[in-house]
Amino acid sequence: MLQTLYRSMSGRLLALLLCLTVSGCVAPLLVGAQSQLMWALLKPLVGFDPNEVNLFENSLVKDRMTALLGDENYNTALRLLKTADELQQEGPLFFVLSRYSPIPEVAEQAGFVWNSDTNQMAVTLISGGAPKVFAEQVLKDNLPVVPSWPTALQPVMAAAKDPQAQLKQAADQALGSAVSGATGLVQQQADSLVNGAQTAVEQQVERSVSGAAGTVQQSIRVP
Predict the structure, then answer these.
(1) Alpha-carbon distances of 76 from 108, 134, 166, rounded to whole Å
(2) Would 206 be classed as within a structural domain?
(3) Is 212 part of any domain?
């Protein structure tokens, strides 16, 4: 009885060891563990400044970003991402977006995205109106998974592919600022005119009342 049980357990242990030595078995286990670690790292930090919590210094993030981007692109991405002030979440996407200038000649932005559904890390670098996308290779049904981007980044990437759209965006922003400034100036001038007219009327009324009172007093004093 004990010998039979021993043989059964030995067979199961042997099968498990054989499975662990095969990359097809090891990879899903490692990916699953890596995904859980990333979730445990990022989820509590949503809403926090990534610079204050040293997000990009954590080895779980830094090692993968360095492998994905290479040293030069990593340094560029890090320089831009340090202008961000919040780690955000949209559905399964955890992301950090740097500040953005819509002027094509100086347009630079970086976006860091980790998809918790696929455990795919992706980074986009936009410089001079041309976006570069770096994404970890993830397969689903033997097909490459296309990286997903948060809603806040999609218009920026679309505009980056079209310099005319960037110019229009910059012009719209400049026009909006000009209209806002002009409206404020007109309002100030209108307020000044109204206040001035009101003051003039009040002064005229006071003079008229004062003059009428003086006339009445003089009339009363006449015998």
Answers:
(1) 10, 13, 22
(2) yes
(3) yes
The three-class DSSP label of residue 178 is helix
Residue 102 contacts residue 162 (beta carbons within 8 Å): no
Looking at the domain assignment, is residue 68 inside a domain? yes
Instruction: Kindly report the number of other CB atoms within 10 A of residue 195's CB atom.
Output: 10
DSSP of 56-68: GGSHHHHHHHHHH
pLDDT in tens, 141-167: 889 999 999 998 887 767 655 544 444
Q: What is the residue type of 156? A: V
Q: How many CA atoms lie less than 13 Å away from 75 in the CB half-sphere?
A: 2
Residues 6+ apart with CB under 8 A from 86: 47, 48, 49, 50, 96
Question: Is 1 part of a structural domain of the chain?
Answer: no
Contact 118, 93 (CB under 8 A): no
Q: Which two tokens stand for residue 93?
A: 């996407």
Closest residue by Cα to residue 92 from 110, 111, 122, 114: 114
Q: Residue 112 pairs with which residues in a beta bridge?
A: 96, 123
Q: What is the pTM of this model?
A: 0.59
User: Same structural domain for residues 201 and 119?
Assistant: no
At 153 the three-state DSSP class reads coil
Note whether 149 and 188 are same-domain residues: no
For the segment 159-215, what is each residue's pLDDT rounded down to a tens digit? 655 544 444 544 455 566 555 555 566 567 656 655 765 666 566 656 655 655 555
Is residue 40 located within the same domain as residue 133? yes
Domain range for 12 is: 8-160
Per the structure, how many domains does the chain have?
2
